[in-house]
Amino acid sequence: MRNALGLMMVVVWFWQFAAPQSGLANGDDSCCWLAAAGAVIITPTEPLWMGGYAARDKPSDGKVHDLFAKVLVVEDLTGHRLVIVTADLLGITRELRTAIETQVQQYGVGRENLLLNASHTHCGPALRSDRLLRLGIDARYAALSQQYVRLISKRIAKLVGEVVSRIEPARLVYSYARAGFAMNRRLPTEKGFINSPNPDGPTDHQVPVLRVENAAGELKSILFGYACHATTLSIQQLCGDYPGFAQQYLEEAHPGVVALFMNGCSADQNPYPRRTLDLARQHGRALANGVETALMTKNQKQLRGSLKVDLQNVTLRFADPPTRSELEKELASGNKYIRIHAQGLLDELDARGEIQIIFDHFPIQVAQFGNDLTLVGICGEAVVDYSLRCKKELSGNSGNAVWVAGYCNDVFGYLPSKRVLLEGGYEAGAAMRYTAFPGPFDESVESRIVAGIHELVLKVRSE
Ligand SMILES: [Zn+2]
Q1: How far is the CA of 175 from the centre of ligand 1 (A)?
Q2: What does the pLDDT look like over 428-455, one tens digit per residue?
Q3: Are residues 115 and 228 in the same domain?
């Protein structure tokens, strides 16, 4: 406490005597934060196997543009810190998260203060060497993937240290606008829910934006979000898809500014139309326009007060797994992925005598900025219901804004709501065949996660 007070006094002294006179230095010290941002290229330098589409049959072949990891560090005047890392990657694996988490401890960044988010570009390198091996892909690429994860973990951790070392007085402003290219992709048909545009399905078209200005009132970084799969493209060139283009366009329009994209709860949202580079650019432009609109809207909320951050694991359960005889039948399936999945579970049955149905590594993270903004980070590929429900239930009557990011910290696979689980289809459970998990979550999945989020939000708000 004495250290925190000491730091506050030093910062206030710095603020009073060192900050240039500007809109920020008008004696309104409630707007004072410390912040900085930076970026590093994480484009692989040799052909790697790519993630996102199981049907790929060759490694990457060059790039459309570079892939980046970016870091935004925000700290309140008592030293409470949030480090946001965004990356043009398909996911954040547990291995990558652990490697970064371990290395950034030296910079005073604790586990609960570190939020990692993947843009979910489907034109990035595959990060799960175990999955590549399970799918029968040349072992050379599994080894290269492991090397790549080690390399970028070092590069990202180094960037965190560098950005932490140059935080400066800042003002944080939240605003939002909208972009319309995301559409629900779960179309109900007589044969069940299929992956196809569903203009009547739920969406979240909000574009939340956090503007970071320095003491002189200059724009330094822009954190922005959108809930849409980064699946415009399925090409063999490395590319950030629409989030990569949106970040590029914002940085071109605001030289020297770091633009960071955080994907939302977009498991069941696709960009439409899609499949050409020109469309990826168009969606990127649409999102960048949404961000520019948020930056100019009259409805700007300056964030005040202190920062509280916490991270906790929630325990989930899978539905009862298939029996041995059901799995043995699946070995005769015409679908290669069903056969591989069944064999993996049979191997687990042989080795352990049972199939694990407890999933005890589901981190949820909350950052509370005064009474103004709650940022919720959910792991996995969460469907849009999580975002819509959290915004409704956590906003309250105080005007506190709520921003929900998916694809945070451990992107293990799909995360259905109870509605989606009961409806069935790809996001409900079929996608699990590409993982080592036994099958769909059980029906308690949404209530367990939402209860965990409420508990954590209550905790940070009452601290
Ligand atoms: Zn996905």
Answers
A1: 27
A2: 999 999 999 999 999 999 999 999 999 9
A3: yes
pTM tops 0.85: yes
Which run of H or of E encompasses 174? strand 168-178
Domain that holds residue 445: 34-312+360-462
The helix (run of H) or strand (run of E) holding residue 176 is strand 168-178
Query: Would residue 188 count as lying in a domain?
Result: yes
Show the tokens assigned to 349.
């049955």
150: CA distance to ligand 1 center in Å? 23
Distance 380 CA to ligand 1 centre (A): 9
* Interval between CA 396 and ligand 1 midpoint (Å): 31
Return d(Cα 113, Cα 70) in angstroms, integer: 16
- Determine the distance separating the centroid of ligand 1 and the alpha carbon of 53, expressed in angstroms: 9
3-state DSSP assignment of residue 21: coil
- Residues 220-279 have pLDDT tens digits of 999 999 999 999 999 999 999 999 999 999 999 999 999 999 999 999 999 999 999 999
Using one digit for the tens of pLDDT, what is the confidence trace for 382-399? 999 999 999 999 997 778
Residue with tokens 């590069």: 155
Same domain, 335 and 259: no
Q: What is the DSSP string of 287-339?
A: HHHHHHHHHH-S--EE--S-EEEEEEEEEEEBPPPPPHHHHHHHTT-S-HHHH
Asked if 334 and 234 sit in the same domain, the reply is no
CA of 93 to the centre of ligand 1 (A): 14
**Cα 415 to averaged position of ligand 1 atoms, centre (Å):** 10
- Ligand 1 centroid distance, CA of 67 (Å): 18
**Domain match, 220 and 136 both:** yes
For the chain, the domain total comes to 2
Q: What is the pLDDT of residue 396?
A: 76
How far apart are the CA of 343 and the centre of ligand 1, in A?
24
Residue 165 and residue 121 share a domain: yes
pLDDT value of residue 10 = 43
For 32-79, the pLDDT digits (tens) are 899 999 999 999 999 999 998 888 999 999 999 999 999 999 999 999
